[in-house]
Amino acid sequence: MDHQLEFASLSGDHNPLHVDPVASRRLLFGGPVVHGIHSVLWVLDRAMQEESSECEITRVRAMFHKPLLVGDEVVATIERSSDSIQAELVSNGAVALTLKAETGNRRDQNSCSPKNEIPERAVPTELDDEKIATTSGVMNLYLQDELARKLFPKLATLIPAQQLSTVSTCSRLVGGECPGMHSVFAELQLTFDREPEAPLLKYSVKRYNGAIGMVSMELEGPGCHGDIRAFRRPSPKQQPSISEIAKLVSKDEFANQRALVIGGSRGMGEIAVKMLAAGGADVSFTYNMGKEDAVRICNDVESAGARVRRFQYNVLSESYQPDDPQDANYRASHIYYFATPFVFGGNKGVFVNELFDKFCRFYVNGFVNALEQFREPEQCAVLYPSTVAIDELPVNMGEYVAAKTAGEALVSFLKKSDRTLSVHCPRLPRVATDQTVSLVPVKNGDPVEILLKEIRALQALDSSN
Predict the structure, then answer these.
(1) d(CA 257, CA 277)
(2) Close Cβ partners of 455 (under 8 Å, ≥ 6 residues apart)
(3) MaoC-like domain location, by residue (predicted)?
(4) CATH of the domain at 181
(5) Are residues 267 and 204 both part of a single domain?
(6) What one-character-per-residue DSSP string does 380-427 give?
(7) Residue 72 CB: number of other CB atoms within 10 A?
(8) Which uninterrupted H or E stretch holds 205?
(9) Are residues 222 and 115 in contact, defined by beta-carbon separation less than 8 angstroms?
């Protein structure tokens, strides 16, 4: 994350999608995403590695096809001729970025230099549809020379400072001003074909398609003009409060359960925690990174007079070393397993072994680890949700489907070999959670209604055994 934070300082784009590993796990891509403009400038810098003569960019076009998550392996193909650059970044078998640029001899443009400062940090704006459609503004250009030379040593040496600053400021525009907080960069086009005047970037929204959240902006900067295309991404999904969920369950409906929800700090796990607590269960839940979310859930549950406790647990850890020694001896009569990575990380028609292994570590290895650590040895009932994607087999989810299929096979093995274990393994439809938000509206099921049905099914299964 160090380079992420450094580029955020250079550009002024501190959007949580890029710099907050905890907050970004609840956003559209399930984790922190490399700034698109960072990847553009990195490619241009690499393309000029063997050069020593000053030049300037005359035209650049970058298209962002898919996000690059922090930690992703990337294959770069860069072709440099005397006056052009063509590049492609590929991750997990799919193209993430295509870039075309043209270069020429450098003119004297020092009279239009940006401020040699770090942009003042600001909270990204949160604009509604009406505001986005009419937004325009003017942004000062900044370029802190020492940091620019650290991140992009060749670019900072060879091209005019206002060109590097103009491109980096586009990141602050999209991530901080328009669309702002809930944004995804899609395309940038800039043409440098005039004499620069002032170190300012002017922008104006020309088209906004609210149905898909697509924003088209026109730009005018020092010596340049161009266009940006971006999307307004959905806000994080907020699950209902315990007071709302309590209307659907009887007060003592789950009072016989000493329930543990693995992965209970968000999504279906969060709903399960509130539902079980509302039904009188003695509820504990685990979180991995989301302590703030866990505290918020505890406050909500306790405000309704129900009982709940939380503790940190990583299903991928080989050993469990709790902060509170009492947690080491915790055993549950009922376990609800919702631990999962981001499920939409696959690419159409491509099967990536590393992604399959990642899913298996959660759905197979992690599940076994949790059972060994927390189940009551005499008798334990488990809800292990599977997915209708096994029946539908989406072509961009092969790794996920294969791992969930392996999970179902594991469940069948456990049920057959261990008579003290009752496992309910329903194939759930797509429901409205953080995991299922998308740029294009998609119909999702009601997670409360669907989960309540399956918790009651587990209760009935446990009672019959």
Answers:
(1) 10
(2) 254, 272, 275, 276, 336, 383
(3) 6-85
(4) 3.10.129.10
(5) no
(6) EEEE--EETHHHH--TT-HHHHHHHHHHHHHHHHHHHH-TTEEEE--E
(7) 15
(8) strand 200-209
(9) no
Place of tokens 């104006």: 204
**pLDDT tens per residue, range 81-94:** 989 999 999 998 89
The dihedral through the CA atoms of 288, 94, 67, 26 has a sign that is negative
Q: 51 and 153 share a domain?
A: yes
User: Is position 92 within any domain?
Assistant: yes
Query: What is the number of structural domains in the chain?
Result: 2
Give per-residue burial for 245-262: e unless 16+ CB within 10 Å, then b. Answer: bbeebeeebbebbbbbbb
What are the CA-CA distances from residue 367 to residues 269, 353, 406, 430, 462 (Å)?
Answer: 15, 20, 12, 21, 19
- The per-residue DSSP string of 247-262 comes to GGS-TTTTTT-EEEEE
- Residue 395: pLDDT band by 50, 70, 90 thresholds? very high
- Answer yes or no: is pLDDT of 102 > 60: yes
How far apart CA 109 and CA 103 sit, in angstroms, is 15
Select from 208, 232, 256 the last residue of a domain.
232
Domain identity same for 411 and 330: yes
Last residue of a domain, one of 214, 232, 250: 232
CB of 61 closer than 8 Å to CB of 189: yes
* Same-domain pairing of 255 and 117: no
**At a CB cut-off of 8 Å and minimum separation 6, what does 333 contact?**
256, 257, 258, 259, 376, 379, 380, 381
Peptide bond into 377 cis (omega under 30): no
Residue 237 CA to residue 92 CA, distance in Å, equals 27
Does an H or E element contain 176, and which? none
Please indicate, yes or no, if residue 237 is contained in any of the structural domains.
Answer: no
**pTM to 2 decimals?**
0.88
Structure tokens at 358: 């990642």
User: Residue 405 is part of a domain; what is its CATH number?
Assistant: 3.40.50.720
What's the domain range around 333? 242-464
Q: Are residues 284 and 197 in the same domain?
A: no
**Average pLDDT for the chain:** 93
**Mind listing the pLDDT tens digit for each residue in 117-163?**
999 999 999 999 899 999 999 999 999 999 999 999 999 999 999 99
Same domain, 139 and 214: yes
Q: Dihedrals φ, ψ of 144, to 5°? A: -75, 110
Burial of 131 (C-beta count, 10 Å sphere; 0-12/13-18/19+): middle
Q: Which of 376, 108, 385 is closest to 272 using CA atoms?
A: 385
Statement to judge: residues 408 and 456 lie in one domain: yes
